[in-house]
Specification:
about 425 residues; about 0% strand; disordered N terminus
Length: about 425
C-alpha cells in the first residue's frame, strides 16, 4: 500500500493537479482571508449588485467563442488546434462588439433591459467583462493542451490578489460602494487575461509558424460544429443555472439577499469549485492521452471519481453541521444569512466535486447531446423548483433548497451514463 501511494504521489497527474490547484487554492486563500474585512467594509446591498454584474457577465461570456475553446485540447494536429484558437478569438471579438451595439441601441431607443436599473452605469461594462472572460477561456484551452498548468496557476492567484486588494483599498478609502467592488474585479480578470495570453504565446507549437490555408477557419468550424450546436447551449445553461440564485434573489428578495448568497458562494463554493476545476482540467489532458493510446478509460474514471468522493466527505460534513456559526464568526452577525445558505449548498457542492471526471469526459467522448440534455433538464428543474418554493410562500432558504434539489437528478444520471460509456469504450479497445 505504501508503495502504491508513493507511486501515485510521483505520478504526472498528481503533480499537474497540485500545480494547477496551487494557484486556485492560493486564490481561494486570498479570497477567504480578505472576506472578513470586505464583509465589514461593504454593505450586502452593494455586494449583491456586484454579484449580479458577475452573474450576468459569466454566462454571457460563454456565448462569445461559440464553445470552440472547448475543442482546443482534442485535435492531435497542432495546426488544427491553432485554427480553433483563431476562430474562437475572432468570434469573441465580433459577438462582443455586436452585444455592445445592441446595448447602445436599447439605450438610445429607451428599451428597458433586465437588471439595467439595478446595475446602473455598470451595465456598459458588461460587454468588456464578457470579452475578457471569453478570451481567458480560449487561452486556458491552449495551456491545458500544452500542460501549461503553472502559468495558469500564477495567473489565477494574481487575479484574486488584485481583486481582493483593490476591494480592500477602495472600501477602506471611500467606504461601501458598487464601483469599489466591480472595478477591482475587472482589473483582476484583465490582468489574468494578459498573463494567460503571454504564456500561451510562449508555449506555441512549431505549427504556429505555418501560414493558415484559405478556408481553413470555415473547414475547422464545420469539423467541430457539434461544439456550438451542443456545448454552447449546454455551457450557457449551466452557467445560467449556477447563477440562478443571484438572478432570482436580486429582483424578488432584493440585492441584499443576492449579496448574502454571493458571499456564501465566495467562501465555500468558489474554493471547492476551483479545486474541482483544477482536477477536471488535468484529468481531461490525461484522459485524452489514455484514449489516444488505447488505454483503460473506465479504470481511470472510476479511480479518480472514488478519490474525489472520499476527499469531499469532510468538507461536506463541516459545512452542513457548522456553516452558519462559522460564517457569523468569520464575517460578523449581519452576514448570518450567508451561513444558512452555505449549509444548504453543501450537498450540491459535494455532487459537483464528485462529478468532475464525468463532465471532463463529456467533451473527450463527444457526448455533447446528452450533456445538453442534462443542462436543459437541470435548468428547468431548478427554475421550476425555485418558483414553486416561492409561490408556496417559503423564504430565501426554501427557494435555495429548490435550487439544490432540482439540479441533483440530472448529474447523478450523467455520472452513470459516462461510466457505462467509458466501460464500453474500454471493452471495444480490448476486443
Amino acid at each position: 500500500m505504501r508503495t502504491k501511494l508513493a507511486s501515485i504521489a510521483r505520478s504526472g497527474s498528481v503533480r499537474d493537479v497540485l500545480t494547477l490547484a496551487s494557484g486556485r487554492l492560493g486564490a481561494a486563500t486570498v479570497s477567504f482571508l480578505s472576506a472578513p474585512f470586505i464583509a465589514r467594509l461593504f454593505e450586502p446591498v452593494h455586494y449583491g449588485v456586484a454579484a449580479l454584474f458577475i452573474a450576468i457577465a459569466t454566462p454571457a461570456a460563454l456565448i462569445l467563442p461559440l464553445a470552440y475553446q472547448n475543442a482546443i485540447v482534442i485535435p492531435k494536429d497542432p495546426g488544427t488546434a491553432r485554427t480553433l484558437i483563431r476562430l474562437a478569438i475572432l468570434l469573441a471579438a465580433i459577438l462582443s462588439a455586436l452585444f455592445l451595439l445592441a446595448l447602445a441601441s436599447a439605450h438610445f431607443l429607451a428599451i428597458p433591459l433586465p437588471f439595467a436599473e439595478r446595475l446602473g452605469v455598470w451595465s456598459w461594462a458588461v460587454p468588456l467583462g464578457m470579452l475578457v472572460l471569453a478570451l481567458s477561456q480560449i487561452f486556458e484551452g491552449w495551456l491545458t493542451r500544452t500542460r501549461g498548468f503553472m502559468p495558469s496557476a500564477k495567473a489565477t492567484f494574481l487575479q484574486a490578489a488584485v481583486t481582493s486588494g483593490g476591494r480592500l483599498s477602495a472600501g477602506a478609502a471611500w467606504g461601501s460602494s458598487i464601483w469599489g467592488l466591480i472595478a477591482p474585479y475587472l482589473a483582476g480578470i484583465s490582468l489574468r487575461l494578459g498573463l494567460l495570453a503571454q504564456s500561451a504565446w510562449q508555449r506555441r507549437e512549431p505549427a504556429e509558424n505555418i501560414p493558415m490555408e484559405p478556408g481553413q477557419l470555415a473547414k475547422v468550424a464545420r469539423q467541430y460544429r457539434d461544439f456550438p450546436v451542443y456545448n454552447l447551449p449546454a455551457g450557457f445553461l449551466r452557467a445560467l443555472s449556477d447563477n440562478l440564485p443571484v438572478l432570482f434573489f436580486a429582483p424578488v428578495f432584493g440585492t441584499a439577499a443576492a449579496g448574502f448568497y454571493a458571499m456564501a458562494d465566495r467562501l465555500i463554493k468558489a474554493p471547492l469549485s476551483m479545486g474541482a476545476m483544477s482536477i477536471r482540467r488535468v484529468y481531461l489532458q490525461r484522459a485524452s492521452a489514455i484514449l489516444h493510446r488505447g488505454g483503460d478509460l473506465k479504470h481511470s474514471y472510476v479511480k479518480v471519481t472514488g478519490y474525489l468522493a472520499l476527499l469531499g466527505l469532510l468538507p461536506l460534513a463541516l459545512l452542513m453541521l457548522a456553516g452558519q456559526p462559522l460564517m457569523e464568526l468569520l464575517l460578523g452577525g449581519r452576514w448570518s444569512q450567508a451561513g444558512l445558505f452555505a449549509e444548504i449548498l453543501a450537498p450540491w457542492l459535494y455532487l459537483m466535486l464528485v462529478s468532475r471526471p464525468a463532465t471532463a469526459l463529456v467533451d473527450l467522448l463527444r457526448q455533447q447531446r446528452p450533456w445538453l440534455a442534462v443542462q436543459i433538464s437541470s435548468a428547468l428543474l431548478r427554475a421550476v423548483a425555485m418558483f414553486l418554493a416561492w409561490q408556496w410562500g417559503t423564504n430565501e432558504e426554501g427557494v435555495l433548497w429548490g435550487f439544490v434539489l432540482g439540479g441533483t437528478p440530472p448529474y447523478i444520471w450523467l455520472m452513470f451514463h459516462i461510466s457505462c460509456l467509458a466501460d464500453k469504450r474500454s471493452n471495444d479497445i480490448t476486443n
